[in-house]
């Protein structure tokens, strides 16, 4: 079945686990869907995907390739590498403009664009990111089990990640990188016998992306083989131009109902943009929920 730019049932923006899981549901439901993906997976620098049952340790890019192997069986699903720059709803359809000059028209849209990580400023950080510096112990805690590790972040993070890392190793230190410790944080860490220090990090040592020593401003040298850090996040511009309602305390997520529907007409959102539990399995699950709701909605009269 050939697809013109005007006869799409669903435009899926973002070809990560959320978008591709939705594509599988839509393909199996014989709905015409185009996945437009800029091709920048959030976890690309990581060596492997963990906690996705049956796919333990597969490379992030390999995960997507496996998904497309599955999707090739379903002729109503297509893929285009491009960046959606603009999205408007008019005459009961969504119209999208891509950076390669195409205009796409679809009855429904699934936003599955993922988030953009904002990293802390620490000298020597970039070359160690996703090698010896991680953000998620579910994803990478097992790889550093029984190693000396540091949790690096302010009070909220220290109270959460300090105790959490004890699941994987007894040798945890909390470094707040300049933020003074509150009495509540100190009391908790002392009770759990977790050492802590507020001195800013001024250097990281270790060859080829490895971490051996964290150097603090006060002159202390902390021998560590991994750090877990607090990431900031921001949304892609598309989320803001659509003026989608956001909710949340520290990080704001796109507001959706139980089936991932946004308050805008025929617009669903799934994956990292809608939750703080940012995992591949969870993204795939929310993409599936969105697709199920889209499939039901498309079967109804359009008015
Ligand atoms: C270093 C690291 C390691 C991780 N390891 C694990 C792990 O081991 N296990 C686990 O469960 N989770 C892990 N995660 C989390 C996991 O990567 C995310 O939860 C998951 O990738 C989110 O899927 P998604 O489909 O929402 O978005 P993404 O996977 O980020 O995919 C979104 C896609 O949309 C594209 N896009 C964005 N804007 C546009 C646009 N306007 N037009 C077209 N395309 C666009 C992007 O280029 C990207 O390809 C890790 C995260 C990081 C950062």
Note down, in words, how this protein is organized.
With 303 residues, the protein is of the alpha/beta class. The protein folds into 2 domains: 8-117 and 232-298, FAD/NAD(P)-binding domain; 120-229, FAD/NAD(P)-binding domain (3-Layer(bba) Sandwich), CATH 3.50.50. It is 24% helix and 27% strand. It is built from 7 helices and 19 strands. It has helices at residues 17-28, 60-71, 137-140, 155-165, 183-191, 237-241, 280-298; strands at 8-13, 33-37, 77-81, 84-90, 93-98, 103-111, 115-118, 133-134, 149-152, 172-175, 196-197, 201-205, 213-216, 221-223, 226-229, 232-235, 246-247, 253-254, 267-269. Strands 1, 2, 3, 4, 5, 6 and 19 form a 7-stranded mixed β-sheet that branches. Strands 8-15-9-10-11 form a 5-stranded parallel β-sheet, covered by helices on one side. Strands 12-13-14 form a 3-stranded antiparallel β-sheet, with no helix packed on it. Helix 1 runs parallel beside helix 2 (60-71) and helix 1 runs parallel beside helix 7. The longest helix has 19 residues, at 280-298. The chain is elongated. The relative contact order is 0.18. The structure holds flavin-adenine dinucleotide (FAD).
